[in-house]
Amino acid sequence: xxxxxxxxxxxxxxxxxxxxxxxxxxxxxxxxxxxxxxxxxxxxxxxxxxxxxxxxxxxxxxxxxxxxxxxxxxxxxxxxxxxxxxxxxxxxxxxxxxxxxxxxxxxxxxxxxxxxxxxxxxxxxxxxxxxxxxxxxxxxxxxxxxxxxxxxxxxxxxxxxxxxxxxxxxxxxxxxxxxxxxxxxxxxxxxxxxxxxxxxxxxxxxxxxxxxxxxxxxxxxxxxxxxxxxx
Length: 231
Known about the structure:
Blueprint lengths: L3 E12 L6 E12 L3 E5 L6 H8 L7 E6 L2 E2 L5 H11 E5 L10 H11 L4 H14 L15 H12 L6 E5 L7 H18 L2 E5 L3 H4 L4 E6 L2 E2 L5 E2 L1
Parallel strand pairs: 3-8, 3-9, 6-7, 7-8
Antiparallel strand pairs: 1-2, 1-4, 4-5, 9-10, 9-11
Pfam families: ABC_tran
GO molecular function: ATP binding
Protein name: ABC transporter ATP-binding protein
């Protein structure tokens, strides 16, 4: 087993064509190592979200190659990409993305229902995940009854529902105050250690980058040479 969880090789992504085309990524070479928390930084418009969408199989590159956990995404049809996202990748978004009418426990259980996991097994894993993120006592509350930090913890628990190999988090602390944001980032750090999952997080907060094993910078659709650092 290679120590690289996901890699991008000369990845380019353009939107539109001709002189008005927008070149979001301009030949990105990038790796996320297994069992690490990698932070991707860059100003707005640098290409962070575009790269996350490509690495997570939500979009396809204009050119280049992406390999996730040994699988070349270009070799998958739409059903294969859907299965990859469902079974091998967890997503955490800035906007939390919770279903308002469902309780915290029901939100966490949604990915497992999609996999048709038996109810008893599903309920047990939901309990374990809510305990992991410190919300065992909030299982029956709906998102509107939770703070922003608690909602993001539910989103992290949901991302871990199907025991993914990779969790992708796009500005997960962007709507939180600095103290709550750091607590969420520390939770992601703990998840790497306790669950053995690989985490890739886009952030612009220097305080949060300090918790990462590795920091990679994007600028104008390219990885900045010499900006890749380890703790």
